[in-house]
Specification:
The chain has one domain. Helix content is about 75%, strand content about 0%. It is built from eight helices and no strands. Helix 3 packs antiparallel against helix 4 and helix 3 runs antiparallel to helix 8. It is globular, with a radius of gyration of 16 Å. The N terminus is likely disordered.
Length: about 190
């Protein structure tokens, strides 16, 4: 029953997502609240954040917490790099590709060595962080905006981990893997829109 409510919550969240790319609206006057809702307002980020948690849960062991932790850490680093003037090429491509790759990892129930899982999550997090860091200089309080974004990301990861942990056998596993296929397809759609 809990598994069904998690999926219903996810579906409702997707229904109320206003834009595909969260970082296209600008963050002028951004606050903690706007930073917090940012990952929830764009399909690209919402799907990637949930996928990180689901894949980490599938991987099990220390990966369950280290993969999302690496993502949040590198997300902050990517945002910080941008505020220092460092650029990262093909940010939109990296973001959309993260949804494809993470979806395929979930669909294939891929279990990588811990170092590789952390590296994959960290690499994709740099792209996501860069996109949001580009907005922070416009914000009234860049640190509050970043804190909101990082907290929302961590909570989405937790929702993904919880979802992945409830899918341990039978039809929930098949549903999670089918969700991975759906994520990969959504990522391809995002790539086509770049």
């Amino acid at each position: 029953m809990k598994f069904r409510s998690v999926w219903m919550t996810g579906c409702l969240t997707l229904l109320f997502t206003q834009t595909v790319f969260a970082h296209t609206f600008g963050a002028e006057g951004a606050s903690f609240y706007q930073g917090f809702i940012h990952p929830l307002s764009g399909l690209d980020h919402l799907l990637a954040m949930l996928a990180v948690g689901m894949w980490a849960a599938q991987s099990g062991g220390h990966s369950r917490w280290l993969i999302p932790s690496a993502f949040v850490t590198m997300l902050a680093l990517g945002g910080g790099m941008t505020t220092l003037g460092w650029t990262l090429p093909q940010v939109e491509l990296g973001i959309a590709s993260s949804v494809v790759v993470l979806g395929l990892l979930i669909a294939g129930t891929a279990k990588t060595p811990l170092w590789l899982g952390v590296s994959i999550a960290g690499l994709f997090a740099l792209f996501h962080g860069h996109a949001h860091g580009a907005e922070m200089p416009q914000a009234v309080s860049p640190l509050l905006y970043a804190a909101g974004f990082l907290l929302a990301t961590a909570l989405l990861h937790l929702l993904g981990v919880f979802t992945g942990m409830t899918a341990t056998q039978g039809w929930p596993v098949r549903l999670l893997r089918a969700g991975g296929v759906g994520l990969a397809a959504a990522g391809v759609w995002l790539l086509a829109g770049i």
